[in-house]
From TrEMBL, chain A:
<dbReference type="InterPro" id="IPR013325">
    <property type="entry name" value="RNA_pol_sigma_r2"/>
</dbReference>
<keyword id="KW-0805">Transcription regulation</keyword>
<dbReference type="InterPro" id="IPR014284">
    <property type="entry name" value="RNA_pol_sigma-70_dom"/>
</dbReference>
<dbReference type="InterPro" id="IPR013249">
    <property type="entry name" value="RNA_pol_sigma70_r4_t2"/>
</dbReference>
<keyword id="KW-0804">Transcription</keyword>
<comment type="similarity">
    <text>Belongs to the sigma-70 factor family. ECF subfamily.</text>
</comment>
<dbReference type="InterPro" id="IPR013324">
    <property type="entry name" value="RNA_pol_sigma_r3/r4-like"/>
</dbReference>
<dbReference type="Pfam" id="PF04542">
    <property type="entry name" value="Sigma70_r2"/>
</dbReference>
<dbReference type="GO" id="GO:0016987">
    <property type="term" value="F:sigma factor activity"/>
</dbReference>
UniProtKB/TrEMBL annotation, chain B:
<feature type="transmembrane region" description="Helical">
    <location>
        <begin position="35"/>
        <end position="59"/>
    </location>
</feature>
<keyword id="KW-0812">Transmembrane</keyword>
<keyword id="KW-1133">Transmembrane helix</keyword>
<dbReference type="InterPro" id="IPR004474">
    <property type="entry name" value="LytR_CpsA_psr"/>
</dbReference>
<feature type="domain" description="Cell envelope-related transcriptional attenuator">
    <location>
        <begin position="89"/>
        <end position="225"/>
    </location>
</feature>
<dbReference type="InterPro" id="IPR050922">
    <property type="entry name" value="LytR/CpsA/Psr_CW_biosynth"/>
</dbReference>
<comment type="similarity">
    <text>Belongs to the LytR/CpsA/Psr (LCP) family.</text>
</comment>
<keyword id="KW-0472">Membrane</keyword>
<dbReference type="Pfam" id="PF03816">
    <property type="entry name" value="LytR_cpsA_psr"/>
</dbReference>
Length: 168, 308
């Protein structure tokens, strides 16, 4: 598959993935654009791989997890953390959107790598092996990242329902 | 909780930036040419191509044919495909783009028999299969192909401020319930889509629909200008798939003004049954090839502007 064809087929999906892991569409756009430019210059090698999409996804993930975006990621996290604090008290537990947005805010403040693992599992439906490939780590690390993320989210979930329970 | 996580992540992902913007950014970096100009010109192709999926017989060909003859090496045959929601080809058009920017095209009815199937099913399997079937039927080499989802045409029509078509008599699409009055009318959005999709209730079914595609494309080509080209490229550019070996931007350089297009429909025989309950139209190879040759040589007969 040629590079243009790859972009035509996968760009939308790649942007969705990048937005989900960065929680910031402008950062997602920068990263995807940069990665695709780099991918194009060595497309001959990438297209021969068994899973070009997975490889490009790995480039996007690495780019985000790299030092370059640490500052941007922290700023987004601070912003979302404030949001996350406000959401529970305002949210009506019966409102599915409010519940979803509260969860979204909590996912946004997870450590970057945990969130990437979570997105790969729950949005991209990757296997442990595929996630390990994208994150360049072992499968047991993948499992521990996801377990820790879920534990954090669950703790928040319980805290939140308790708070809401007291108020209601 | 897992389901909640899924929904939360999907909602986050939905915030993604517009793919067309990213695509334009990529092309800009690659071409290092003035952005507006390149995109403007490219969108004319897109429109010709995109729009291409549909087409005109109302527009007369320009008188400047000799220019094309002087540079035969640059004329190119492009297969334009309009796909439905499951990637079957709803519209198939082989267009010859001359060096002077004029276009002669032939609509290939989607029900043409190819082996034990119909030609419209080949694209989804592999675009190369459709390409070779079209080459076989028309006797012409296909240099490149482009595909666009038919569903995009509602928006495309909107961007150019509506596309004018003319119906011989009033029509009602029993599937969508949309009704069209007789005579000239300007279509966009859902009405444009209903116009392009209707085949039930028309005397010749899909063949009438092919004429509608052609009339719509003619109307669309007439509305494209450098003022709406950029908006058009933004709207349609991201959803058009072209073969990987095709430098669309270089190709687009030849278009400097409104695209002139002349289209005819490939002649076919009476419907035959090719498999259980599958009706198909047999192509007549010798007649078809001759027709395409005449069409590409600019010998298309003038046709009435209104369609069924």
């Amino acid at each position: 598959m040629g590079f243009d064809q790859f972009v035509a087929d996968r760009l939308d999906r790649l942007l969705r993935y990048a937005t989900a892991i960065t929680c910031d569409k402008h950062l997602a756009q920068d990263i995807v654009q940069n990665v695709l430019m780099r991918a194009q210059s060595r497309w001959e090698r990438i297209e021969k791989m068994s899973a070009p999409y997975l490889y490009v996804k790995r480039m996007v993930t690495n780019d985000y997890l790299s030092w370059r975006h640490r500052k941007a990621a922290r700023e987004i996290a601070v912003e979302r953390a404030e949001l996350a604090q406000r959401v529970p008290s305002m949210a009506d537990p019966a409102d599915a959107h409010a519940e979803r947005d509260a969860m979204r805010a909590r996912i946004a403040v997870l450590p970057r790598k945990q969130r990437a693992a979570l997105v790969l599992r729950f949005y991209e439906d990757c296997t442990d092996a595929e996630i390990a490939q994208v994150l360049a780590c072992t499968e047991s690390t993948v499992r521990s990242q996801i377990t820790r993320a879920l534990k954090t989210l669950r703790a928040h979930e319980i805290a939140r329902s308790t708070t809401l329970g007291v108020h209601s | 909780m897992n389901d909640l996580i899924r929904r939360a992540i999907a909602a986050e992902a939905d915030e993604r930036p517009d793919p067309a913007t990213v695509l334009a950014g990529l092309r800009r970096t690659r071409q290092r040419k003035p952005f507006g100009l390149v995109v403007g010109v490219a969108s004319l192709t897109v429109a010709a191509a995109a729009a291409a999926v549909v087409i005109p017989m109302t527009i007369k060909k320009t008188e400047s044919a000799p220019v094309a003859a002087a540079q035969p090496a640059t004329a190119q045959n492009v297969l334009l495909v309009g796909t439905d929601d499951v990637d079957f080809a709803d519209a198939i058009l082989l267009a010859r783009f001359e060096a002077d920017g004029s276009v002669n095209a032939v609509s290939v009815p989607r029900d043409i028999a190819v082996g034990d199937t119909t030609i419209n099913r080949l694209y989804r399997d592999d675009p190369a299969r459709l390409v070779s079937a079209v080459e076989q039927v028309t006797g012409q080499k296909v240099d490149h192909h482009a595909a666009v989802r038919m569903a995009e045409f509602g928006k495309i029509a909107q961007v150019v401020g509506g596309v004018e078509v003319c119906l011989k008599k009033a029509a009602v699409d029993s599937i969508t319930g949309v009704s069209f009055p007789a005579g000239k009318q300007t279509l966009e959005g859902d009405r444009a889509l209903a116009f392009l999709r209707q085949r039930h209730g028309l005397a010749h079914g899909d063949l009438d629909r092919v004429r509608r595609h052609q009339a719509f494309l003619a109307g669309l080509a007439a509305k494209i200008s450098k003022d709406n080209a950029l908006a058009l490229a933004r709207e349609a550019g991201g959803s058009i798939r072209v073969d990987s070996g095709w430098d669309v931007l270089a190709f687009a350089q030849r278009f400097q003004g409104p695209v002139k297009i002349v289209v005819g429909t490939l002649p076919v025989g009476e419907p035959v049954t090719i498999a259980d309950n599958v009706l198909a139209l047999p192509a007549d190879p010798s007649r078809a090839k001759q027709f395409v040759e005449q069409q590409f040589a600019g010998g298309a007969p003038a046709q009435d502007g209104c369609v069924d």
